[in-house]
Amino acid sequence: MHRPHTHAKEAAPETEGRLIRWAPNYDWWTHILTLGRAAAIREKTAVLAQIKPGDVVLDVGCGTGELTLRAKNKAGSTGQVYGIDPSPEMVGVARQKVTHGHIDVDFRVGVIEDLPFPDNYFDVVLSSLMMHHLPDDLKTRGLAEIYRVSQPGGTLMIMDFKRPTSLLAKSLITLMLHGGMQTGVQDLTAQLTTAGFGQVIMGDMGFRPLGFVRAQAQKQE
After folding, report:
1. If we measure between CA atoms, which residue out of 84, 104, 98 comes closest to residue 10?
2. To which CATH superfamily is domain 23-217 assigned?
3. Residue 205: Cβ-neighbour burial (10 angstroms; 0-12, 13-18, 19+)
4. CB neighbours of 138 closer than 8 A, spacing ≥ 6?
5. DSSP 8-class letter at 105
6. What are phi and psi of 182, to 5 degrees?
7. Run of H or E residues at 168
8. Diameter of the chain by CA atoms?
9. More confident residue, 24 or 1
10. Would you say 152 and 221 are in contact if contact means Cβ atoms under 8 Å apart?
11. 126-178, pLDDT tens digit by residue?
């Protein structure tokens, strides 16, 4: 698999989504906010995505690559795994991890609304704690792009914050620095259906503020 050269001063692309630029501290901060459960949550996300050996996988909004690396473990040496993120700082940290670990994962700076991949390419697409950074119109455009690059019957697995529906949930979301959320992962069903996804399944992640939605790209072979 071709891996692009690391560009120390790679520019951030134009996007309406929120960029996280404090990449060196991201893994530590996520560990704290999840009360030490970040690794287990990412592993559960990879398991729920049902990644098989040999699958071609994309992690959209890959951040520092923690979920992407777990996807590579599932896809194995015959699988191809890519991660994109609009933050050059995040991609830089992710590239350092695969370089140090001699792991074949292709990390690129890119945006969900303009995925640099051909149609019908991926068996599985992942999104972890990224959708809540996007305005609604960008979510719609991004899901349409994910549908475009997904194989017929390909899986989309989204793990993200749930819209809080109780005082406790609102308190937890506020403690995790996401107070004031009006929508959550459980509200994506209509946009997924519009994009062309079906067989939508929703559930919890075993950590109260987080949930998931999994769907399949409804395309003709």
Report:
1. 84
2. Vaccinia Virus protein VP39 (3.40.50.150)
3. buried
4. 15, 16, 17, 112, 113
5. -
6. -100, -25
7. helix 167-175
8. 49
9. 24
10. yes
11. 999 999 888 889 999 999 999 999 999 999 999 998 876 656 555 555 555 45
Helix, strand, coil percentages (3-state) for the chain, rounded to 5, are 40, 25, 40
Show me where the domains of the chain are located.
Answer: 23-217
Query: pLDDT tens across 30-53, in order?
Result: 777 777 888 999 999 999 999 999
DSSP 33-101: HTTT-HHHHHHHHHHHTT--TT-EEEEET-TTSHHHHHHHHHH-TT-EEEEEES-HHHHHHHHHHHHHH
Amino acid letter, residue 132 = H
Retrieve residue 118's tokens. Answer: 């051909």
User: What confidence category does residue 27 fall into, taking pLDDT thresholds of 50, 70 and 90?
Assistant: confident
pTM of the predicted model, to two decimals? 0.85
- Residue 214: both structure tokens together: 């999994």
Distance CA 111, CA 197 (A): 20
Query: Phi and psi (nearest 5°) for 215?
Result: -150, 165
* DSSP summary character for residue 192: H
Q: Could you give the CA distance from residue 147 to residue 155 in angstroms, rounded to a whole number?
A: 10
d(C-alpha 144, C-alpha 196), whole Å: 8
